[in-house]
Amino acid sequence: MSETLPLDIGQPAPEFALPGTGETHHALSEYTGRAVVLYFYPKADTSGCTKQALAFTELAEEFAAAGVAVLGVSKDPVAKLERFIEKHTLGIQLLSDAEGGVCERYGVWVEKSMYGKKYMGIERATFLIDGTGRLREIWRKVKVPGHADKVLSAAKAL
């Protein structure tokens, strides 16, 4: 595993280029001039991750009206992401970081613990990136209720 430096507000966001659903590919450089919400979640179609995706979907039109792209990232394969979107009628773009490199660069691939067992997994985190590619807000260890609303408010304030 490569060493990652902590990310700070104001610094350039790490570049990413990942496959998305519907045979799309997304790179941070493609969003120059447009703000991006890049949110990382542990696993598609689990309770918390579904609630989070639905919350961002409910606000998708408001994010779009503010000129903000919403991109969700997990290590799930694209086919699973497509089933997740279809099952829950999600209105956001989901990206697959199957190799985990982007998760590592953003510092969200962390040691977790459940029932005393330690394992590696994705920390639920959100990054607000402005149109110049700089980090403007970072939320770590995200709690889902109300989070999408907080992110929308911050995005509108850019």
Detailed description of the structure:
This protein is 28% helix and 28% strand. With 158 residues, it is α/β, with parallel strands linked by helices. The chain has a 5-stranded mixed β-sheet with strand order 5-4-3-8-9. A two-stranded antiparallel ribbon has the order 1-2. A hairpin with a 5-residue loop joins strand 1 (17-19) and strand 2. It is globular. The mean pLDDT is 95.
Helix-strand blueprint:
Layout: E1 17-19, E2 25-27, E3 35-40, H1 47-58, H2 60-65, E4 68-74, H3 78-88, E5 93-96, H4 101-105, E6 109-114, E7 117-122, E8 125-129, E9 135-139, H5 147-156
Parallel strand pairs: 3-4, 4-5
Antiparallel strand pairs: 1-2, 3-8, 6-7, 8-9
CA gyration radius, whole angstroms = 15 Å
Count of distinct strands: 9
Q: DSSP helix count?
A: 5
The termini sit apart by: 34 Å
Which of globular, elongated, flat, extended, rod-shaped describes the shape?
globular
What is the share of helical residues?
A: 25-40%
Order of helices and strands: EEEHHEHEHEEEEH
Q: Beta-strand percentage?
A: 25-35%
Low-confidence stretches: none
Protein structure class: alpha/beta
Average pLDDT reading: 95
- Give the neighbour order of strands across the main sheet: 5-4-3-8-9
At a glance:
The protein has 158 residues and is of the alpha/beta class.
Question: Which key terms come to mind for this protein?
Answer:
single chain; 158 residues; alpha/beta; five-stranded mixed beta sheet; two-stranded antiparallel ribbon; 5 helices; 28% helix; globular
